[in-house]
Write a structure and sequence with these properties.
The chain has 442 residues and is an alpha+beta fold. The protein folds into 2 domains: 160 residues, no CATH class; 230 residues, no CATH class. Helices cover 45% and strands 20% of the residues. Strands 1-2-3-4-6-7-8-9 form an 8-stranded antiparallel β-barrel. β8 and β9 form a beta hairpin. α5 runs antiparallel to α6 and α9 packs parallel to α12. InterPro entries: DUF2921.
Amino acid sequence: MLLKIILINIILSLIAIYIFIYSLKPQAISQKILENTSISQYFPKRILQEEAPIYNQYIYTGTWQSQSIKKDILQFNYLDQNKGNSYFFIEYENNIAQNIYMYYYNPQYTDEKFVFAIVNLSQCQLLLDRWICVKNYVKWKKYDKKYYKGSGYVQNATIIIRIQNSDIPQQTTFLISLEYQNQINLKGQYQAQTSSSAMQVALYNVYMSFIGLLQLFCVWKFAEYLQRNEIRSTKLSLITIGFVSANDCYLALCHIYLSIQNTFFLQYFIITAIIYFVLASIYDMKLLIIIWKNRYYVNYNTPQEIRKGFILFYAKFYLSLIVIILLNYYFYLFDIYLYFLPLFIIPQIIHNYMKGNQVEYNFYYIFGILFLRVIEPIYIRGCPENIFGYAPHYQFCIIWTSLFIIQIFFIYLQYKLGPRFFIPRRFRVQYNYFHTVNFEDR
């Protein structure tokens, strides 16, 4: 069995290395927008698909800057910064520019405020090195942490596009100014997007694949450890192990979604998705079933009762899985919600107290299964150049890691000092060895 696991890990690693090397071949600088290597890093793909029909277009990146004299003027009545990152692309019809789709970030990260604006070009005149378009219709939508916050529009806005020649897709730099009284008055300088984030995405998936393989190995070794002595499994919290399994399922689904959403990076994300899918569906479920059988199997007397017990077990698990997926989907960008996720170790602490037995402090369980959960959010919130474009929160990283360390250290104290060491001796429940005998009844 060990040889099979090692062989599978080697094969998956070789496939990942081959795909990584193959995908680093030189890419053409003039990428189409659907194949652009940086689109998933800077643009919310869901919004792009809903709002903007794309036909062989190019991404332009740059910065926007407010041109309002008054500093308290909010651009689009929403952005409270005076400058930030900006991205846009142009829609063509019969080689004639029709619409400009713009993103204005406040100031640069995708989990902060941003505005998605559509400018419908009309009455444009070419004067020397610039296009001047008047009486344009501008519509925008406002987002915060990728949640829709409202919309607005103006008419008769003026847009000035300063370029070097008429062939815009081949340009490296040009200037766009958008003006409409005080509500919109800003300009941006842009360049054609030529950078590639393939290396960044590849390194992220190598990082996550390594963590996934390490977790898979630890779960497999710990399951073998429990099978050698079934009494050990009664010392584990089914809620804690169930949350670990549900979290692995969520990571597998996330990477499957990323591989489908970003087809250019399919070869990267699919390897990570497969690893976490195998981990969640085979090894984590095997561990859950071992714990459940050793704890509840003796309560059933007939095969029909056993089947009902299994059905109830799977129903509870998948219902919990759906709830966790929905909560993570809607609240994963909120630090307050994330602070509750490390508390899944508390049921194990309570279980140790309730049982009062010797605490199970196995290395594969504590550090391989529980503590490795700290890593993935640390990348998202601790790396300023993460592939998702989220803002770094170093305070969150410190609190998140501290919560894990405190709980694991508490389990260690239970292992050394006893599962009920934190309860004063006078309040501990103790067995009464002396019984009162009523001689009259005898």
